[in-house]
Hints:
By secondary structure, chain A is mainly beta.
Amino acid sequence: xxxxxxxxxxxxxxxxxxxxxxxxxxxxxxxxxxxxxxxxxxxxxxxxxxxxxxxxxxxxxxxxxxxxxxxxxxxxxxxxxxxxxxxxxxxxxxxxxxxxxxxxxxxxxxxxxxxx
Amino acid sequence: xxxxxxxxxxxxxxxxxxxxxxxxxxxxxxxxxxxxxxxxxxxxxxxxxxxxxxxxxxxxxxxxxxxxxxxxxxxxxxxxxxxxxxxxxxxxxxxxxxxxxxxxxxxxxxxxxxx
Lengths: 116, 115
C-alpha cells in the first residue's frame, strides 16, 4: 500500500522569505512523486514531478522539490515566497512498479499562507 | 486546448436522492480518473478508466456509486441513493496513455452536499 504524509496543516511565511512544504511517502516500488496546488474555487494544478534522474526538480511558478530516497521525502520549496503563492498544496505518490496502476495517493494537503 | 471540465460545479441534494456528475476529459486523453475529497481530508482515488473500460475501481466505496464512460469520451458518476457521508468534492482527472506522460490534469471539481 502507498501513503503520503503532509505533517503540517498550515505553513505561514512572510513574503520574500523562503518556504518549505513537507511531504514524506511510502511506496513498495519506485516512487513517482507529484506536487499539485489548488487555488480557491479552482481545480488542482500540476506543479512538478519526480520520476527519475536529478533529485532536485524544478516546476512552475519558481517552485522546486527535492527527492530524498533515504528519508523518503519530497519537500516543496521556493527561495522567495509571494503573497500570490497562498493556496492549498497537495503531495501525491504513484507506485512506479510496472502494472502498479496509475492511481495517485494524496496527502491531506498543506495550506500555505504568505503574508506581507 | 480546453482543460478537464466538470458539471455541475455545485450540487445540493437530500439524503436518498440521486445525483449524476459529469466529466469531460481533455480531448485525446484515454485515461480518466475520479477522485473525491471528503471533509477536508486527503483526496482519495475512486476509479480509473482506459477508454471505455474500467481499469481499476478499487476505490469505489460501495454499490451506490456507478461510473460509466460510454464511447470512451465523457464520464458520469452516479450516486444512488445519496447518503450524508457522500458529501465532498469530486474531482475528475485525465491523462494520455503514452508512456512517460505521468501527470494527471484535474478538473475544478463538483462540490456535493447531501442534507
